[in-house]
Records
---
Amino acid sequence: MKLPDTLRFATRAATGYPLRTFLMVLAMSIGVAAVVVLTALGDGARRYVVNEFASLGSNLVIVLPGRSETGGFNPVNAVTSTPRDLTVGDAQAITRAPAVLRTAPITVGTSEAVFNGKLRDVTIVGTTADYLKLRRMELAQGRFLPAEDANAAVAVIGAKIQSELFGNQPALGQVLRIGDRRLRIIGVLGQSGQGLGMNADEVVILPVTVAQAMFDTNTLFRILVEARGRPLIEQARAQALEIVKARHDGEEDVTVITQDAVLETFDRILGTLTYGVAGIAAISLAVAGILVMNVMLVAVALRTNEIGLLKALGAEAGAIRNAFLAEATLLSASGALVGYLLGQLGAFALRTAVPTLPAYPPDWAVIAALLTALSTGLLFGVMPARRAAQLDAVQALAKR
Amino acid sequence: MALIELTGIERSFTLGDSEVHALAGLDLAINAGEYVAVMGQSGSGKSTLLNLLGLLDHPNTGAYRLEGRDVTTLTADEQARVRRERIGFVFQSFHLVPRLTAAENIALPLMLAGIEPAERSRRVDKALQDFGLANRADHRPDQLSGGQRQRVAIARATIMQPAVILADEPTGNLDRATGEDVIHLLEMLNAGGVTLIMVTHDAALGARARRRVVMQDGRKMTDEAT
Ligand SMILES: Nc1ncnc2c1ncn2[C@@H]1O[C@H](COP(=O)(O)OP(=O)(O)O)[C@@H](O)[C@H]1O
Ligand SMILES: [Mg+2]
């Protein structure tokens, strides 16, 4: 029996029992679709976080108040209480380190901004002039915070704040009231997008001392440090730590992390998560494989007569084995294909529902899912096919 | 040289702890072109004999020569090839593949033999014409009458132009008139030169054959020619 005939015969057999074929394809496709969607979700989350950190700026070292025990980045330790203030003075001192290009102290808080009777909650970021370059941000209008006067009553607003509070009117030169302070708007940020959960379009940037006074605090949320180059990141980290330690009476009460380390950690955690969900989803493929075997065993039992007939008509055992194997492969292949399409559809739906999440299934997951589906189908199809091929012709013909 | 030559054939089955001798000490020679009716009571070994002749079953002892060749020692694949090319089966219960059309059922042996699709459809078309099934080509078995089904089965049995047709009670599931038609068809094929070996317990049908082998308890009781 020639290969095209074997395939056609198997196709006719598969389409000859539509309900069985439908259920089979459904089971296999759910497995494949699960792998595709879940890995898309996992890898999407990983890419989201990685992009978020990358958008912070490059060659970045971050100084956080509080000591992290492990030395590495740990999201839990990063928010523990502060033993000693991290100050603007610390930031200025770090700027003088040889491996450091520039720094930006950061204070963060929320408040209400009022203009012309319109009121809006805003995120306040208190920082210095270098923040703009360090974060690689662009101004749409005006200028950024002045380097000379750290106490100036000025503000730079995000694009969304400008459109919501001012609409089409010019914002530059207007006076914005935040809390009990009146600040002159000197600049508007360009549209940017996300940055560490802080949407730069919805912030109001003030001189750091003004912001600290507003929130009645001396400590900083963190200090962003830009190294002079990628190879100097590690040196910048060591120097920053050394300087702050010296200024804090020799106590190492801050955590200095590099962007790379943070990225690596998140990359690893979420990458592992993705492998995990892929593994769990793959189990459903193995289950589908066992289902293929059962369905094919039932097919052999139901078609015993037909197998006897084929033998009487002169089919070799190999031809019968191939026909049943082709049928199992066909079922799992169509299941894999349908599952792949369903999975891609699911990933697309995810991306539509959550546009910020780049939920694309990784190639390795798609290939692994399709290969697993095909090989389980083939593998679990072998036993029923061999059983069919080994049937005794006379008994097979006599069975009712 | 006889087409079929059986000598000292034994075939027994073990049922529980008793042994059933379905065929015992059987010698039989059939020449090419003969028309043989195999008769006898139920359980006398007729079907076992036919299965053996069709290489679907193996004797415990004895020799089977088909066209001068000892076929009992062939490998399973070689026997499949002999079945494909030299033997045509017609069964009491038709044994058509339910999901395939009449034409596809007739084409099965050609497909198994690896014959090209063009040649296949040419031969199937001719068979459909010859057997009066031209307007039934695309019908599935459940859309055909019993007589039509058996005609499809006979077309399938002869499509490879075998040397011998083995028919096990081919009219058993048909009414009298339809059975007549089917027998007539088989006799026409025999008249064309094909050896016809037919199991029947209908004495009237047996009387039409030119030779009657009557079986009893796995042995040949009478063997007479007219
Ligand atoms: N597979 C088998 N297992 C056990 N006994 C069998 C088997 N096939 C046939 N027999 C026995 O062999 C004898 C001959 O059977 P069979 O050739 O079918 O008879 P017939 O076709 O003449 O009615 C019967 O006694 C039957 O029970
Ligand atoms: Mg019988």
---
Amino acid sequence: MAVRTLKIDDRELAVEAGTSILEAAQEAGIPIPRLCHLEGVTPVGACRLCLVEIEGLNKLLPACVTEVGEGMVIHTQTAKLQEYRRMTVELIFAEGNHICAICVANGDCELQDVAIQVGMDHSRFPYQFPDRGIDLSHPLFAIDHNRCILCTRCVRVCDEIEGAHVWDVAQRGPDCYIVSGLNQPWGEVEACTSCGKCVDACPTGAIFKKGSTTGEKHADTAKLEFLSTAREKHQWTR
Amino acid sequence: MDKIRFATVWLAGCSGCHMSFLDLDEFLIDLADLVEVVYSPVACDLKHYPDNVDVCLVEGAVANQDNLDLLYEVRRKTRLLISFGDCAVTANVPALRNRLSESAAGVLDRGYLELADTNPQRPYAPGIVPELMERVTPLHEIVPIDIFMPGCPPSADRIRATLEPLLQGRTPTMAGREMIKFG
Ligand code: SF4
Ligand code: SF4
Ligand code: FES
């Protein structure tokens, strides 16, 4: 096993080559905020919350998709990073329609948690109030695009763990949205097995069980990690 | 020492933030010793916002012309302005109509014409019923804000933890789940 030695926030670490900076930091108990990262599926670097500073590099890199390198000196909590993280979270809020008071995920939402973590008490960016839809066509679940942050966790979990690939990302820029099947209503997509993994993967209140009302969604993200560990390492532990 | 001149204002919100303020229970008695309430829909009869206000809690977003005029006046006459609750901080539920392309006309048509059981008619009384703004806006997109207190509504504990330091001349720390969680 090849080992890389590096420094994160003045802590000397030795980790296996190929480990991501995020995983290395996590093992050392150094918290880095993240939203698109989900244990058990491939990292994509979509949310940019996990950006870190690496000495000698003049750009910030996302910790979840950057492998550790020999001798790296990494900082995760500089003033610049903290300011950028808060801006990123404010932009996410300003881009969608997040009305926490009437959201299924209120009180158990990873976006809300991250807002608290970065100290966001308001958004300095003007709210865009985009006109987005809600799809209620599935018998068991629903997707409210107003609360979607385009982390693509649902896309990855459905493709990689369930193997159904119901979801994808359509369009570009501000028109981006999560699309089901061949741009069909979710309820008409035959590939959907109604397993509910996307409900557990979604960090916000965008995908939820029908019938849940304010504050009633409690996603079980650990279940997805359990499934992938069981499959890949044959360990049934939780 | 002169008492702190204290006000609360209710713009486009459901008054829930003010109800939460009343939930301060016995702290209201302590508060009454320290402040003079110079304007408030729940604690004072004055109809006009006075000069030289020290601290003001503003609930609600800016949804109509009256809200806008009052907010400008409040800012002009107030030293420390607190954006009070999610409607003030994010525009929240009142801004649900912003996604309609003609949001002022659209919401009136829906409420007064399409859903009317009898006598469908749009309210129109210039100078009496204020005109709706095209876009419902959080306070800080219009005037500078000194302290943001999110929450729908902010709990009485959060309101107290914000006001208490202010009364002692200190700035409250708006951080952590207890102080800044939305919703
Ligand atoms: S998804 Fe989270 S941040 Fe968005 S409205 Fe719901 S609780 Fe608030
Ligand atoms: S629906 Fe949920 S999981 Fe899917 S991209 Fe949007 S926020 Fe992420
Ligand atoms: S967690 Fe790394 S970019 Fe989202």
---
Amino acid sequence: MLLSVENLEVKYGNIQALHGISFDVREGEIVTLIGANGAGKTTSLYSIARLAPPEAPKVVGGDIRFMGESILDTAPSDVVKNLKLALVPEGRHIFGNLTVMENLELATYSRDKDADLDKDYQRIFDLFPRLAERRKQRSESLSGGEQQMLAVGRALMTGCRALMLDEPSMGLAPVLKYELFRTLKKLNKEGMTLLLVEQNAKLALDIAHRGYVLDTGTIAASGTSEELAGNPEVRKAYLGG
Amino acid sequence: MLASILQNVINALQWGSFYALIALGYTLVYGVLTLINFAHGDIFMVGAYIAFFVASFALTTLGLPGWAALALTIPATMVLTSLVGVTLERIAYRPLRRKGAHRLYVVITALMAGLILENGNLAILGASRKAFPPLIHETVYTIGGVSFTNLKIAVIISAFLVFAFLHWVVTRTRVGMAMRAISYDKFAVPLMGIPMDNIIVVTFVLGSAFAGLAGILFAMSYPVLEPYMGALIGWKAFIAAVVGGIGDIRGAFIGGFLLGAVEIMVVAFFPSTFRDLIGFTVLLVILTFKPTGLFGVAKTTKI
Ligand SMILES: Nc1ncnc2c1ncn2[C@@H]1O[C@H](COP(=O)(O)OP(=O)(O)OP(=O)(O)O)[C@@H](O)[C@H]1O
Ligand SMILES: [Mg+2]
């Protein structure tokens, strides 16, 4: 098991946001977390990324294991550096005062000295040719879709082997949305493990192997994508009937 | 006429250099942490005292000649002063940051830390002033009625070199890139695999080291040290950084020289007791017209 979340309970101050949820991700899989607004999807990813309060919640119970070892004491930068687990956060959070290229370069901050960065830049620019055209541009002047591409490209430049994405399709035009999901599928074919949070459950279940449905901080359903897509309750709540 | 203008320009550059060097430290820390490190002026004072002890040790105990003592004093003071800055960050600011304390409490902590440095100095070394030992032979040159000393020129050159160096760090190096990234969006920085505390430590090292350098140069230029010497100059450097646009190193640099120029000009035309009154009034007027400072952009990015 690459990642396992076990009976995780987390709080923001006194407010409990996750009530003992468990799920896991195997190497090479695409796993999706779906659920309504406020279900606890972002909270789950923040916890795994080990981000600290006040923005992120505090783990008060349960465990998060990466390849069998608890990561509750791991610093967020070490999750990226040592575990090679990256997060594309909700709302992109690109560094608008840096150029596109600087954003990508910054993501290589903690990589090995002998990493073949040129090859990785080339890979990003092949995946997202738009970024190549705009590499000298200040990134706050990119369109929303381009910023999303940069957020994904930047996470990939960390040299990660597993990637968590929080609503990557938010604000993208339909064409770009499908393009992004094709890209994600392609990354997964090349060996990248993905944990995908999406409001658009249909799109997510289309590319995921398995999924979990979160409902107010608990797991309401889980199964393969086919099972979830066939589950009448899931269909009713998240797939429009 | 021309000679007197040039004379004032040189004086303004030299006097402004101290403000600029100190203002750079204010602005770096502010850019990265949005913290106004009110202890920074006192770090400058500590730097001058460290320079005093190192220089005295080199001259008397080691028996080094002045130039060698200076060559030792500069790096040693910069290193030791940056340790003071880093310690301050570690014991005063970092715990508050960990707890997510409101900015107001951090600023109050900074003010208190400054007072502790001043009064700690007073308690340990007593109220008597210290005379900084001469390290170099000050030579006065006069060209066409304009006179300046080797020390004044060295002060000005130092300020420009420091600015060029910091500008290079901020714009060209990966650490500088991380500093700019933090100033824009702290939240996402660890997600890039960057340990934020390391970047903050680098910021304090840079700011304090150059406050230490300012301390040496100031002590050489005005060789009387007292525990409160950093208070007023620190406030003024802070104001210079704000007028320049706090968070932007160009702003701090220009702001420092602007304040130096205003003060020198006031003294050239008015009784010297008017200096601070007119100086602060000019800065106030600038801020009224441009509240974000000369280089300040309304709340987008810093540094
Ligand atoms: N910073 C915070 N402080 C307090 N409570 C929070 C905070 N962030 C989230 N919460 C609460 O935690 C719960 C889970 O929120 P979370 O952001 O994880 O939901 P989500 O599933 O990502 O929703 P969305 O689809 O809207 O992004 C919600 O009830 C929310 O109100
Ligand atoms: Mg969310």
